[in-house]
Write a structure and sequence with these properties.
single chain, about 525 residues, alpha/beta, Dimethylsulfoxide Reductase, domain 2, Rossmann fold, 4 domains, six-stranded mixed β-sheet, 18 helices
Length: about 525
């Protein structure tokens, strides 16, 4: 996030898109609801489903799946045509404006309506509301990123914020809501194939030399590794022989699961490190039991870039160990002695080799966390990014055209499927499905369908149906709901017994390599 969670309540206008905030981020959603209910903020919601946040929205735009670039270009078209953009911000702090202008000129509201299904007048209202606000905040999540145009979608949101000057101040910003705890911290710590900690490029020889000195080694590769979505095809082709999976359950969470299982079965050696024996762990040659968050010391970096202490509350069961101890023991046995004595020692090294974490110590975050970048011990942290200038100097506009999703509905597969989460379960259910109370609330998978489609297919609440795609099929119970949009069904991906990702396809964003989980074509049939 460019801004803080608390900042949301300072906004005059909040634009929420691609985020079922009340179910996926229930605590954070209270900041949005309080801003609307008690502080007079106006909420623009862009989502194809009538999610809980729609009850608080002043403008709700119900777009067709995968049309985000089109409606964002349409909003910018209106803002430019009506002269509502922030001229001084654009002139003083950005570049590429003329190219953007030429592109969005091609997206009048009437054309956008034909693409996205959003009525032209509603789009104009939303554009005016966002552009004329003194302070406007954008919140987005995986409904924006999990498309073949996910990177384009995010750049388009940045375009909109820069065009209106809603960056670098309280109550503004472009704020991604992370889908899992400490995802931000994992990325910060180099959990990506092309960077070291703090997003220092692997391909930069100077960075490699710095890391070699810090670790007492030579010959670190400057070639980026593979993303998860590149590893699986490589395994299937026999190019990737071994895989080490930590805290992830791809046999439920990744796309096109039938193919993915074949990929994993091609491996010569699979190691899974996790809390429980997940679906993926059952395929492993070796399973390493690890501690949960309450059984260890360390830090988490949350969605607003705040680095916080995590403290051990209970002892781990059986032979479970801290993840860092497992990794140190393994590295030592493989010939490189990792001799850290505690998570605090590891944090001290992080500060030495990571410019954005340079001033973060256990003592400084003992009570309250710090926001990176925090480059030195005297620095107070940076709750709000881009106050004076962008990291690269001027913010770059990207002129982006709309591209349709990778797969379209047709006569054979006439419905669209979109996937997501529900309030009572978390990711693949590795932890939450061991809770009796949560299982009572949502005991199994369901197919959310609009009343009109339920009547068309002759199904009612609780009926068993089969959902088929070009990649596989599952069976689940019907849930007729006003949340659903005609022609589109929604299935939560948590449930291994009826895994929605059996149906999804592995078409990737060319830059981020994220699969298009949010759009694929399916058909529905009554189960025998």
């Amino acid at each position: 996030m460019t801004n803080t969670i608390g900042d949301i309540e300072d906004a005059d206008v909040i634009l929420v898109t691609g985020s079922n905030t009340t179910e996926n981020h229930p605590v954070l959603s209270t900041f949005v609801k309080r801003a609307v209910k008690f502080k007079g903020a106006r909420l623009i919601l862009v989502d194809p489903r009538k999610i809980g946040m729609a009850e608080f929205a002043h403008v709700w735009l119900r777009q067709n799946l995968g049309t985000d670039v089109a409606w964002l270009n349409g909003m910018m078209h209106v803002i430019l045509k009506e002269g509502l953009y922030n001229k001084s911000f654009v002139e003083e702090r950005t570049k590429g404006f003329e190219e953007l202008k030429k592109t969005v000129e091609q997206y009048p509201p009437e054309r956008v309506e034909a693409i996205s299904g959003i009525p032209a007048e509603d789009l104009k209202e939303a554009a005016r509301l966002y552009a004329t606000a003194k302070k406007a905040s954008i919140l987005y999540c995986m409904g924006i990123t999990q498309h073949i145009t996910g990177t384009d979608n995010v750049k388009s949101l940045a375009n909109l914020a820069m065009l209106c000057g809603h960056l670098g101040r309280e109550g503004t910003g472009v704020n991604p809501l992370r889908g899992q705890n400490n995802v931000q911290g994992a990325c910060d710590m180099g959990g990506l194939p092309n960077v070291y900690t703090g997003y220092q490029p692997v391909a930069d020889l100077a960075v490699a030399k710095k890391m070699e000195t810090a670790w007492g080694v030579t010959g670190l590769s400057t070639r980026p590794g593979l993303t998860v979505t590149q590893m699986m095809p490589a395994a299937h082709e026999g190019k990737l022989k071994a895989l080490y999976i930590i805290g992830e359950n791809p046999l439920v969470s990744d796309p096109d699961l039938n193919h993915l299982k074949k990929c994993l079965e091609q491996l010569e050696f699979l190691v899974v490190q996790d809390l429980f024996l997940t679906e993926t762990a059952r395929l492993a040659h070796v399973v390493l039991p690890s501690c949960c968050f309450a059984e260890k010391e360390g830090t988490f970096t949350n969605t607003e870039r705040r680095v916080q202490r995590v403290r051990k509350a209970v002892d781990p069961p059986g032979e479970a160990k801290d993840d860092w101890r497992i990794l140190c023991d393994l590295a030592t046995r493989m010939g490189y002695a990792m001799t850290y004595g505690s998570p605090q020692e590891i944090m001290e090294e992080i500060a030495r080799v990571t410019p954005s974490y340079g001033g973060i110590t256990y003592d400084r975050i003992d009570d309250v966390g710090l926001h990176w970048p925090c480059p030195n011990p005297e620095h107070p942290g940076t709750p709000i990014l881009h106050r004076e200038q962008f990291t690269s100097g001027r913010g770059k506009f990207h002129a982006i055209d709309y591209l349709p999703p990778a797969e379209a509905a047709d006569a054979e597969y006439p419905l669209y499927l979109t996937t997501g989460r529900v309030l009572y379960h978390y990711h693949t259910g590795t932890m939450t499905m061991r809770s009796k109370g949560l299982n009572e609330r949502i005991p199994g998978c369901f197919v959310e369908i609009a009343p009109e489609d339920a009547e068309k297919y002759g199904v009612q609440d609780g009926d068993a149906v089969k959902i088929r795609s070009r990649r596989g099929q599952i069976q689940a119970a019907v849930k007729v709901s006003p949340k659903a949009v005609v022609g589109t069904i929604f299935i939560p991906f948590h449930f291994a017994q009826a895994a929605a990702n059996t149906l999804t396809h592995a078409a990737l964003d060319p830059v981020s390599k994220i699969p298009e989980f949010k759009v694929c074509a399916v058909r529905l049939e009554r189960a025998a």
